[in-house]
Amino acid sequence: MNEWLTAVIGLAGAAVGAGAAAWGARLSTRASLDMFVVNVQREDERWMREQRQAAYHAMIQADMGLMNTALKLEGKGNENRRLPPELEPMQQAAAREAYAALSLIELCGPQSVLEAARKLHKWGNALVGARAFVHCDNSGIQPGDVYAWQQEALLEFRNAARAALGYSVDAPAQSE
User: Fold this and answer.
1) CA distances (Å), 127 to each of 24, 26, 124, 139, in order?
2) Cα separation of 75 and 130, whole Å?
3) Residues 65/66/71/76 CA torsion (nearest 10 deg)
4) Can you tell me the distance from the alpha carbon of 97 to that of 100, in angstroms, rounded to the nearest whole number?
5) What is the three-class DSSP state of 2?
6) Using an 8 Å Cβ cutoff, are 87 and 96 in contact?
């Protein structure tokens, strides 16, 4: 009878041990799975942040291209609001680059940055026209006014981009 009692107690101990091992393995598997999900989410967030940062950089570069084009085309437009044929490709290339940058932001957002980017795009293109056709504009709007609006739009865009990227907006970017 002692042998039977010892065997039953041994089997019960083994069953409890096996159950505890299975429970421990289940907890370990669940913890590993949770950690995997967290890592995938972090990687997705990092990837999206990098995509946004690249798109925002492209928009700033395109705006700089529009500003440089505006300076090169200053006063070169005629009264029919046409540029000389040899200068049209320069203006068109700058406009295409700005539109491509805006398109990137349309893909990766968010909406607050997209709205600021659209405003920057509008005033960057307006600056090119204002500078190129300064002598034939009767609206009373001076290129300096358009430049100020473009700089305001640039500051707004930079601050929206900073916020979207998770940078502090307590110390906003300054326009030069």
Assistant:
1) 67, 64, 5, 14
2) 9
3) 120
4) 5
5) helix
6) no
- Whole-angstrom Cα Rg for the chain: 31
As a whole number, the mean pLDDT across the chain is 83
Which pLDDT tens digit goes with each residue over 68-105? 888 888 777 766 667 777 878 888 888 899 999 999 99
Higher pLDDT, 100 or 38: 100
- The DSSP-derived string for 149-171 is HHHHHHHHHHHHHHHHHT---SS
C-alpha span between 146 and 165 (Å, rounded): 28
124-137, pLDDT tens digit by residue? 988 888 777 666 55
Cα separation, 57 vs 41, in Å, equals 24
